[in-house]
Write a structure and sequence with these properties.
Elements: H1 2-24, H2 26-29, E1 32-36, E2 40-45, E3 48-53, E4 59-62, E5 66-72, E6 75-80, H3 87-101
Antiparallel strand pairs: 1-2, 2-3, 4-5, 5-6
């Protein structure tokens, strides 16, 4: 029962909701540039710029196509792996994540 509900929710309901949020929020659709360094994660877009310090982040996870970086247990930044120029650059970012946030958590 409950396992089937979770499967249906994660497979069909949540992706539709996330797509709706994305299509309704024009800010999310604009190009954003990220820089990772020893201070934290810097983001820049035509709407503005900001920085999140490592101390303000909770954890991170790696998916097949994305890195998820959590400032809270129910909120995360989605970083597509496709933004990295090559595997070495991705590896360097993951090293920064491990150094500052520890190993990925589930």
């Amino acid at each position: 029962g409950f396992g089937i509900y979770l499967y249906v929710a994660y497979r069909f309901i949540f992706p539709r909701k996330w797509l709706k949020v994305y299509t309704e929020n024009k800010i999310l659709q604009k190009e954003q540039n990220f820089k990772f360094d020893n201070e934290g994660i810097h983001a820049h877009s035509e709407n503005g710029a900001g920085m999140v310090a490592w101390k303000d982040l909770l954890k991170w996870k790696e998916g097949k196509e994305t890195l998820l970086i959590y400032p809270a247990s129910n909120l995360f930044y989605i970083i597509p792996k496709s933004i990295f120029r090559n595997d070495d650059e991705l590896f360097s970012i993951k090293e920064l994540l491990v150094q500052n946030l520890g190993n990925q958590k589930s």
